[in-house]
Amino acid sequence: MARLSTTDQLADLRRIYTGENLSQAVPAVRGGEPLPDATTEAQRQLEAKVLVAACTAAGVLQLMPPASIIRPAHAFRTVEPGETLKLHLTGRALGPLLFELLPRTEAGYGLGVAGLTHRQYRRSAELTTGDAGVVLVGVDERAWDLGLRYVRWMHDFRGVEYTDGGGDDAPMAEAATGSALLRRVHLWHEASWLRALPLGETWFVEWAGGPAEAEIRDRLGHRDFGTTREITFRRIDAPAEDVEEGMRTYPWPEEFVSAVTAAEPDQRPDRR
After folding, report:
1. Per-residue pLDDT for 260 more than 80?
2. Average pLDDT, stretch 118-125?
3. How far does the chain reach from its first CA to its final CA, in angstroms?
4. What's the whole-model pTM score?
């Protein structure tokens, strides 16, 4: 039997944008706006920077075993927009995401989000600048420690100079647009990848495969769930050829390779 209540219809629509399940979406739409935007500039700034970092981190995930640019790779599987933005990560995304977000100085340049710190809870972790924050759902202390081990490995690999302080404190242009996109990022979950970054007074969004450009424009033009922010779109065809063999045998440390993918033929130690 079809569910015809207004609440159920709104919840179904919201899930297209966020990836939430019904138990997450139904209470949210009952509680107020169908899909609220961030309410402070500090929060918009942080969320915009998280989106850019997530796109970069997803590129790293494509190169992790079993390396592939054909299968979709994204840092987040679900977002829960609200007064506090909750993010559900995909497998192995935490380390690459933290590397992009935590402040560091590399080759003389401040990278990551200046002033970003961590608060650990029993079943989640919060990244906060003091006046803004996002919650990483399901990231317990053990998961956080593994994520930091990845970050330290990357620091050693890339010769990061120091991580005490540092970071980039420059404001993100048109941060409200980046924040709005992050809160609707599930629209692109079927694309092979997503790239988003500020470009002048707009944001440039590119994706490979997945939804048609007309579909994205229609979704973002929705009265209740869309956004009026200025965005430039470009959809390209999904890649027809996968990564080269050399990328498949890249020597990732064993602890960053899951038990399943570690057994893949091109990931055996004798192939590295």
Report:
1. no
2. 97
3. 55
4. 0.90
Q: Is the pLDDT at 265 greater than 60, yes or no?
A: no
2, pLDDT greater than 80: no
Tens digits of per-residue pLDDT, 232-246? 999 999 988 887 766
Q: How far is CA 63 from CA 69, 77, 160, 206, 266, in A?
A: 8, 18, 21, 19, 13
φ, ψ (nearest 5 deg) of residue 205: -125, 125
Written as six digits, the tokens of 272 are 């590295």
Using alpha carbons, select from 159, 146, 171 the residue that is nearest to residue 257.
Answer: 146
Using alpha carbons, list the distances in angstroms from residue 85 to 110, 201, 244, 249. 26, 25, 37, 37
Q: How far apart are CA 78 and CA 90, in angstroms?
A: 9
Greatest alpha-carbon span in the chain: 62
Which residue, among 19, 18, 17, 28, has the nearest Cα to 8 in the 3D structure?
28
Rg (CA), the chain: 19
Question: Contact, 211 vs 187, CB < 8 A?
Answer: yes
Q: For the sheet with 231-236, list strands across it.
A: 193-199, 202-208, 231-236
What pLDDT, on a 0 to 100 scale, did the predictor assign at position 246? 65
Q: Which residues, other chains included, contact 211 with Cβ-Cβ below 8 Å and sequence gap of 6+?
A: 187, 188, 190, 191, 219, 235
> String of b and e for 54-83 (b: at least 16 CB within 10 Å)?
bbbbbebbbbbbebbbeebbbbbebbbbbe
Between CA 154 and CA 96 the distance in angstroms is: 9
pLDDT in tens, 162-221: 666 789 999 999 999 999 999 999 999 999 999 999 998 999 999 999 999 999 999 999
The rounded Cα 133 to chain-centroid distance in angstroms is: 14
